[in-house]
Structure formats: structure tokens, C-alpha cells
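Fill in residues.
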């Protein structure tokens, strides 16, 4: 027999299952939207709901809403036939928002010319190590001296980030000039370790100052730049996967793709018919 969503049973069931407050609120919202838009919980209405979601929302939102209705079907209605498959997010055939090598070099040059040395080295370290921002913030003066940073993740898995020799030597000279012998490498004006937000904001400020596209001047963009530049010079994708700390080489294969800008340039140059 068809029926509307029983929001009270839905909520009490989730609370009994010890779901987080955020999850309960999110799932209840999905249930309310479905109830208002489609009414009875039927296979036909659930399929229509999925289509409507796909047409109006991003993949992540679609799947969260579907998970909510699947939970209701399984735990409240006890009806597995009303389960709705999630959708797979298609990997884009290009890389987005990656700083170009030309822009990377331009940014370094401007920072160096203006003697903005701390931010020059921030950009250099981001681009030359491929570090995630969480790893980047752990860098210490002692790591620069050693030329590497060993970071232990889940299960005691080692991730080693190398600091290239040329960058290490330049950075040590800078650190010696400013009297830094130990401790975290990236400090704010108060002498405290910088945050990911602080790094991102500083990069955006400098992008705007130098009239660069701020959408490509953010911490993770330099990790993408590292990977792209490495493959252009040394085409060993397995080694790159190790350097990037990827669990699977399949994750690294995205760097074999062109950026959207590179694709456009190739199309404009090649297709003349």
C-alpha cells in the first residue's frame, strides 16, 4: 500500500541508530523535499525524484538525497525493492584550475623581484614538493636541512616528501639570513604556525596584486602543477604516484590529461578545417 513519508518514524529511527545531528537533519530535509514534491513513496515516484535531482543538483547532493530515501526504505519501510542506485560522478576528461607553468614562473619572479621572500619560498615549496597543504604546514627548518619530510599517516604508513637540493640550499641561506635555526617553517606575523586558510588567503592576495586568475592560485593547484611538470620531464607515473602519496596509480593517471586551457589551445591550433 502506498504511503507518505512518516517523518516522525524517520527521525526516531535515525536517532535510535545513533546517527549524527547533521546526518539526521540532512536526511530529514531530503525526506521533506520528496514528500512535498512527489508524495507517496513508490518506485515510480522515487525514479522521478532521482531524475529531478540529477537535473537540478550536483552529484554529491543527489547522492546524499538518495541515501536518505534508501535509509528510510530499508530501516523504516523494510522494503529493499525501493532502494535507488546512486549515480557515479564522471571524471572530467581534463584538469581544472591548475596554475600553468608560465604563471607559476611569473608568480615566482614577481615575488623574488619584490623581495617578498617568505611568500616566494611558500610558492617554491608548494610547487617543488607536491605536498598536500596538511603536510606543507608540518614542514620544519630541520626538514629543510635534511632535505626530506617523513610523515606517518593511517596505519603507520610512511609518506616521504623530498625537498630538491637547489631549493634546499636557497631556503637554508634565507633561513640563515633571518636567524631561523629550528621550528615550524611557515609562521605568521605573530610568530605562530600558519594555517591552511592563512596560506590560501595570502596566495589569493598576491594573485590579485599581480593581476593573475585567483581561481588557479591556491595551495592544491601547486600540487597539480608539481605532478604535471614532473611527468613532462620524467615520464614515470609509478614513481610519481609514490611521490604524491597516492594509494593507487589510477589516481595519478589524471595527470596524463591535459588542462582545459591546454585542450583549447591544441584544438585551436590543430582544427583548421
Amino acid at each position: 500500500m502506498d504511503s507518505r513519508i512518516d517523518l516522525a518514524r524517520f527521525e526516531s529511527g535515525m536517532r535510535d541508530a545513533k546517527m549524527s545531528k547533521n546526518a539526521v537533519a540532512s536526511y530529514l530535509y531530503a525526506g521533506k523535499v520528496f514528500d512535498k514534491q512527489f508524495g507517496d513513496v513508490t518506485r515510480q515516484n522515487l525514479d522521478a525524484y532521482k531524475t529531478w535531482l540529477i537535473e537540478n543538483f550536483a552529484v554529491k547532493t543527489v547522492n546524499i538525497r538518495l541515501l536518505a530515501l534508501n535509509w528510510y526504505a530499508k530501516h523504516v519501510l523494510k522494503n529493499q525493492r525501493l532502494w535507488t542506485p546512486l549515480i557515479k560522478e564522471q571524471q572530467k576528461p581534463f584538469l581544472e584550475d591548475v596554475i600553468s607553468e608560465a604563471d607559476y614562473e611569473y608568480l615566482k619572479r614577481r615575488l623574488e623581484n619584490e623581495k617578498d621572500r617568505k611568500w616566494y619560498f611558500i610558492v617554491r615549496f608548494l610547487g617543488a614538493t607536491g605536498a598536500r597543504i596538511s603536510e606543507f604546514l608540518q614542514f620544519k627548518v630541520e626538514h629543510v636541512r635534511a632535505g626530506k619530510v617523513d610523515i606517518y599517516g593511517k596505519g603507520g604508513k610512511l609518506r616521504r616528501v623530498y625537498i630538491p637540493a637547489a631549493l634546499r640550499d636557497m631556503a637554508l641561506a634565507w633561513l640563515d639570513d633571518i636567524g631561523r635555526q629550528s621550528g615550524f617553517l611557515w609562521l605568521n606575523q605573530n610568530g605562530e604556525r600558519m594555517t591552511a586558510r592563512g596560506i590560501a588567503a595570502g596566495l589569493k592576495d598576491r594573485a590579485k596584486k599581480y593581476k593573475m586568475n585567483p581561481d588557479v592560485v591556491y595551495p592544491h593547484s601547486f600540487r597539480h602543477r608539481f605532478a604535471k611538470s614532473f611527468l613532462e620531464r620524467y615520464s614515470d607515473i609509478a614513481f610519481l604516484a609514490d611521490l604524491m602519496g597516492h594509494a593507487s596509480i589510477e589516481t595519478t593517471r589524471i595527470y596524463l590529461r591535459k588542462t582545459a586551457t591546454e585542450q583549447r589551445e591544441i584544438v585551436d591550433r590543430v582544427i583548421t578545417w
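The first strand starts at residue 148 and ends at 152.
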